[in-house]
Amino acid sequence: MNQPREELIEATVFCAYHQVAHSFVYSLEENGLVELVIFEEQKYIPKAQLPQLEKIIRLHQELEINLSGVEVVIHMLHRMEQLHQTVTNLENRLRRYEG
Amino acid sequence: MAYIDYYKVLGIDKKATEAQIKNAYRKLARKYHPDVNPNDQNANKKFQEINEANEVLSDPEKRKKYDQFGENWQHADTYGQANQQQRSRNSGGGAPGGNPFSGFGGGEDFSDFFGSIFGNGGSGQGRQTKYRGQDYQAELHLNLQDILQTHKQTLTVNGKNIRITVPAGVDNGQTIKIAGYGSPGQNGGPAGDLFLTFLIKDDATIKRDGKNLFVTTSIDLYTAVLGGEIMVDTLTGKVKLQVKPETQNGTKVKLKGKGLPVYKKENEFGDLIITYEVQIPTNLTEKQKELFKELSQS
């Protein structure tokens, strides 16, 4: 474990707070959507992954999207963000020739 | 304050069953949910509208009241008075004639129309659905000089002071997320996020492409032909340049490391590219014309 303990949240605590089954978070790990850290046989969630994990839970709970659907949505959002970045870069380059 | 047709918002018939309401809500929520529409204020607003419609229509008691008094809500005194009084105490009154959804951006959960029928505590009377707060968008306008060094800056967004780090070399249009600085959540839901977009204005004479800067500078014909020294403006002041003899119009010169700092890479800098624009002399005297003729024949 390379991260300091204060940067980690126990998976069981997280699941209880968000009222999700432990198996759900472990499935996310199996599908590569979150990375958990094991320390003294306990699974922990790095704080940096909280926004992504909470987004996944909102998609699952509020929109009733199943795990496969969540996976597709997350990948599409990532792709959308990359395209948005590309468009911004191209717009910036274009400005050089327009003005 | 206008009447809001919640059935129209969800695109359903007035006789819709609970299952049909749920389906319609799910379908629209999946389309407009803030998590699947990042940085889209219109989608955020639409999501709040469908949430409000769902809050009323999916609760049998609220739906009954809405159906009974909805279109005639201004006359719904029987149960409205108590809520109105409560609401006036809480918020100091509504905004007559304003946008029915004006409450959404200001931290309130539902529209004035909703409040007038169900009171501000309307959502607390039935189910307690947790909703994440709305995301806020903000822009920070900077000049090229402002991004030469990483520095701290304090911004005021919706009345809150936020101290942020402006990283050196940040790109125009780049957006950063400041978690938890959006609108507060509803019914214990998490707060939204603040999306801050950096808008970097080009300098009047210096253009930017990523980490590199571009400047066009005029040189007179004699300096271009014979060579000489010129002064060129950069973001950090003027620099002296040696122009080589017989420099052609459009010649580019690269000043290594005189561009912008590379984003999140310490001690790495782009280049400054200078393009020479040779100026042909005008208003020549007769003697000068003669000399040029002589030159052209030599």
Description of the structure:
The complex is a heterodimer of chains A (99) and B (298). By secondary structure, chain A is mainly alpha-helical. Chain A has helices spanning 11-18, 22-30, 50-62, 67-98, and strands at 8-10, 37-39, 42-46. Chain A is elongated, with a radius of gyration of 18 Å. Chain A starts with 7 loop residues before the first strand and ends with a helix. The model of chain A has no long low-confidence stretch (mean pLDDT 86). Chain B has nine helices and eleven strands. With 298 residues, chain B is α+β, with helices and mostly antiparallel strands. The longest helix of chain B has 17 residues, at 41-57. In chain B, 25% of the residues are buried. In chain B, the strands form four sheets. Chain B has a four-stranded mixed sheet with strand order 6-7-11-10. In chain B, strands 1-5-4 form a three-stranded mixed sheet, with no helix packed on it.
N- to C-terminal distance of chain B: 87 Å
Report the mean per-residue pLDDT of chain B as an integer.
81
Largest sheet strand order of chain B: 6-7-11-10
Give the fraction of residues assigned to helices of chain A: 55-70%
Unreliably modeled segments of chain A: none
Helix vs. strand class of chain A = mainly alpha
**Uncertain ranges of chain B:** 84-108, 122-127
Number of helices of chain A: 4
Largest sheet of chain B: 4 strands, mixed
Strand content of chain B: 15-25%
CA-based shape of chain A: elongated
